[in-house]
Amino acid sequence: MKKILIWGAALCCFINGCTNSKQVTEVQGDLAMGFMNPPDEAKPRVFWWWLEGYQTKEGVLADLVAMKEAGIKGAIIFDAGSSSYNKMEKTESGPVFLGPEWKALFHYACDVADSLNLEISLNIGSGWNDGGPWVTPELASKKLVWSDTMIQGPRKLNMQLPMPAKLDKAGYYKPIAILAVKLNENSEQIKPLENMNIKAVHSIYSIPMTKNGLGYDWNLFMKEEASPPHEANATLDNVIDVSSYVDAQGNINWDVPAGNYQIMRFGYSGTGIEVSTHSPGGGGLAIDYMSKEAMDVQYDKVVTSLIKGHKNASLKYLHDDSWELGASNWTPAFVDAFQKQNGYDIKKYLPILTGKIIESRDVSNRFLYDFRRTIADVIWENHYKRFDELAKKDGLALHSESGGPHPAPIDALKNLGLNAIPMGEFWIRAKTHRVEDFRRIFIKQPAAAAHIYGKRFVQAEGPTSIGPHWEEDFAFMKPTLDRAYCEGLNRLVIHTFTHSPKKAGIPGNEYFAGTHFNQNVTWWKQAPAFLKWNSRVSYMLSRGLFVGDVCYYYGDNVPNQVPLKHIHPELGEGYDYDVCNTEVILTRMKVADGKIVLPDGMRYEVLALPDWKVVNVDVMVKLAQLVKDGATIVGPKPLTTVGLKDRAAGEQKVKELSAALWGDINGTTITEHTYGKGKVVFGKTIRQVLQDKGKGPDFAYQSRKPGALIDYIHRTTPDAEIYYVVNRNERPEYIHTTFRVDGKVPELWNPDKGTIVPQTVYATKGKTVELPLFLDPFGSVFVVFRKNSTGDHSSIPALPMDTFDVAPSLGTPENVAVTGPWTVNFAKEWGGPESTVFNQLISWTDHTDPGIKYYSGTAVYHQTFTVSAAQLQKKVFLDLGEMYNLAEVIINGKHTGVWWTHPFRGDISAYVKEGQNTLELKVVNLWPNRIIGDNYLPADKRFTKTNVKKFDKDYPLRKSGLIGPVRLQFYAR
User: Fold this and answer.
1) 221 neighbors 372 (Cβ within 8 angstroms)
2) Alpha-carbon distance 106 to 891, whole Å?
3) Are 972 and 818 a contacting pair, CB within 8 Å?
């Protein structure tokens, strides 16, 4: 028991702020000042939905003022339709998208934002998928189509070839080529290539999932496929271009040689993909993302038409949203683009795109690699790069969701690297939609892009949801947000702030998706506290540089995306990582002091290669240079190159360099080979390689509780090491932590309260610092090292056998119940009694008065309590017990803050006095109960009005109000 008491004594000084710890009252340095009062750059932004285009000057002013007052820095104006969900009513339509009235409202919004020093971004369309009524079939998203005709030669062929199938509904069609393929004798027995439809980008959403819970199996595209000799439908020599024998109507006049021929009529048509969830005037076909002309038209129709003659300082960014175009695999200029990129004509290889194996399986798969890579690079060049060029000419920047996150024929990191701010998205925990983690967390990808391309901010929309409506409080949002922050998020874009006109009532109109976040929510007055927490976290995580020991190369394949942050089996816990692409390796990587470095300061100990036997030849050349200069590379030996471009020379180069770099490594008895100043390793885990280099885990922890799950992220500045440590479990955790920090003193920075507490109990061991740490359920804290240590701290308490269910302290606290009767004031305008008495604390839903049972909003609880002179010498805590959903706590007329995180317990020592004290609790619940209760009232007697029709009479009520027990806790100082 003695060990437990020692542990409790050590911990209480930072948990309770007592004994040897003293809260810092004088803020020192810019870091601390920014943490206490985050600057505008750290404040959240919002998606500002103009549903069905409905907006007014009154609404613009009210919304932007509300944002400003709450601590929101800016908004993405997102015109869209109101509903694609069966529990929603379509809202009233407003001005036609981009019509004169709509443009006037946009200009007014920018003018108001100018006056409020807010930031405006613009989504360049209505809904998502760029496009609109101006998009003709020539500018629309396209796909390859074809028809087959079997002919036995020799014979004179004079017929009209059938039109290709699967044309768009408008019948749009343009020819590419007519090919006559002389089939081998065994052609009918040849099985098609594995995963043919997705390899040829005829389908994109059918990519299978991995078995490890990380989402789509991008490696499947590079999976080796046996290629027996002579196993092909035809040789390349027997693919004959007969286009010159065919007229514009498809009539062919050709002398067919002897043999069995398949006449293939190739062309392209529209995919039929349209703008999704648009408002009136915004509908139409989605543009061709491989067409520079289409991008120019989209930009001109939306952006140029809005900003021409109107200059606003507030308009900073342009946006297009997540890729939801499905599969698109052709554009009119594709033949030339393919030739330019790969050095050979695509036409004779077109039969491969229909499932035929030409020459061999190996050749066919290599062609498909070239095909997909070209699609990705043309999208990058003609859509995202062109978008960036146009924006820059107008003094604007991008934060497109250009990395997916849905499956897309793209190099996600390369696209995101064009953004001023790489952007992703994340979804809140739910049982209705995107339940699995890999379907809802998309932050590691834009974070990696920001790190490898030298961008300071990483932003994401969230927490998004489909299903819940006004059912999330701040405490429920926090675990998802903390997870996003540990993935690399440092600028939150709240999804979503919906404009709702006054005549729509309260809670008013809402979008079918998103966590509802506007001035109509019950907790809006308390939102600044939650937003400031986010701002503090964002501020700290945008300082300096991300710390990751490993950079994983995700290869040169298309499609390619980065999965959510996870523990790699070969790396284990305690290390973080980035992911890079070919462009970054070729243009941004160098070596200094044995580390891989990027121009903006990022440094990695190890570059890890994918588990493939193929590599881009240019990457192979660069890898050799990196190792020669001192880099450490971990991975298997490449055996050949990718694609068909300069294949023979490329394969020879890869073999030569692989032999030089990997030497006689066999992965078992020989696992390392030195080359120049660096080395290549294969057969050891990455964790072993790091530890061989003297790099132990950046962060480690021990717990007595099975299943402890602690996440972290680390940023480094010239003056400080900043760790954000997060408890991912809904239970308290007492852990022994180790930080890879040399010679600095730890401090605990609480982003909720804005407090900085020195941590006096710690030990230095080598180049690490160890300290005990207590985290509440879903709790989080910054551990900051900014001051040099004046001497060694040699010991900390041993991790006790007792796991503790409450925070350790100097012995057992004195508990004093705060009992009723309680006077409670409800808002009469929302159906509650102006004043009533609760003899005991219960959920409002258990009350017999319907005005309380179905009440939503704020109720004020009043009570008094007495503190003796002896008790006043102790630390005084208030524990509210069970409470829904948050509360402002006011003691003796002094505001102690908004209590929104679990447990609802805090130090009130600074607010209490000897004798009688007053306690006032402004408790706020959520909207569902009042909406449910209104179903029992005549339409003209109802309190709420909304387009959300989810909450009928039978929908379960949600616990609400203060349930307790409420108690005072006195701890010895």
Assistant:
1) yes
2) 45
3) no
Q: Which two tokens stand for residue 245?
A: 């024998």
CA distances for 246 relative to 157, 178, 254, 391, angstroms: 11, 8, 8, 44
Measure the CA–CA gap between 134 and 245, rounded to whole angstroms: 37
Cα–Cα distance measured from residue 307 to residue 33, given in angstroms and rounded to the nearest whole number: 37
User: Of 591, 602, 659, 584, nearest to 625 (Cα)?
Assistant: 591
Pair of tokens at residue 365: 């798969």
For residue 47, the surrounding DSSP H or E stretch is strand 45-51
| Strand ranges (E), 95-203 | 119-123, 131-132, 142-160, 174-182
Is the pLDDT reported for residue 705 higher than 60? yes
Give residue 806's pLDDT.
Answer: 66
pLDDT at residue 25 in the model: 32
Q: At what angle do helices 57-70 and 100-116 cross, to 10 degrees?
A: 30
Cβ atoms 648, 366 nearer than 8 A: no
DSSP code of residue 260: E
Closest Cα partner for 584 from 452, 673, 473? Answer: 452
- Burial per residue of 302-326, b for 16 or more beta-carbon CB atoms within 10 angstroms, e otherwise: bbeebbeeeebebbbbbbbbbbbbb
Contact 76, 122 (CB under 8 A): yes
Selection from 953, 951, 963 nearest residue 923 by Cα: 963
Residue 393 burial by CB count (10 A; 0-12/13-18/19+): exposed, middle or buried? exposed
Strand pairing category for 814-817 and 967-971: antiparallel
Encode pLDDT of 379-422 as tens digits: 999 999 999 999 999 999 999 999 999 999 999 999 999 999 99
> Could you report the per-residue pLDDT of 684-703, keeping only the tens digit for each?
999 999 999 999 999 999 99
Q: Tell me if residue 92 falls in helix, strand or coil.
A: coil
Q: What is the 3-state secondary structure (H, E, C) of 699-746?
A: EEEEECCCCCCEEEEEEECCCCEEEEEEECCCCCEEEEEEECCCCEEE
Q: Is-contact 273 327, C-beta < 8 A?
A: no
* Two tokens, residue 641: 């190159």
Question: Phi/psi zone of residue 422: left (φ > 0), alpha (ψ -120 to 50 degrees), beta?
Answer: beta
Residue 785: is its pLDDT beyond 60?
A: yes
pLDDT above 80 for 582: yes
pTM: 0.96
Condensed to tens digits (0 to 9), the pLDDT of residues 869-895 reads 999 999 999 999 999 999 999 999 999
In 595-732, beta strands by DSSP E:
595-597, 603-604, 606-608, 614-615, 632-634, 640-641, 672-675, 678-681, 699-703, 710-716, 721-727
Q: Which residues partner with 733 through β-bridges?
A: 775
Whether the pLDDT of residue 6 is over 60: the answer is: no
787 in Cβ contact with 936 (< 8 Å): no
d(CA 703, CA 481): 24
The answer on pLDDT for 202 being more than 70 is: yes
Name the residue type at position 965: P
Cβ distance 689 to 717 under 8 Å? Answer: no
- What is the structure's pLDDT at 332? 98
Q: Which H or E run includes 12?
A: helix 2-15
Residue for token pair 């108690």: 967
Q: How far apart are CA 96 and CA 55, in angstroms?
A: 11
Q: What whole-number distance in Å separates Cα of residue 101 and Cα of residue 642?
A: 54
b vs e for 234-256, b when ≥16 Cβ sit within 10 Å of the residue's Cβ? beeebbbebbebbeeebebebeb
pLDDT at 20 over 50: no
Residue with tokens 């806790």: 969
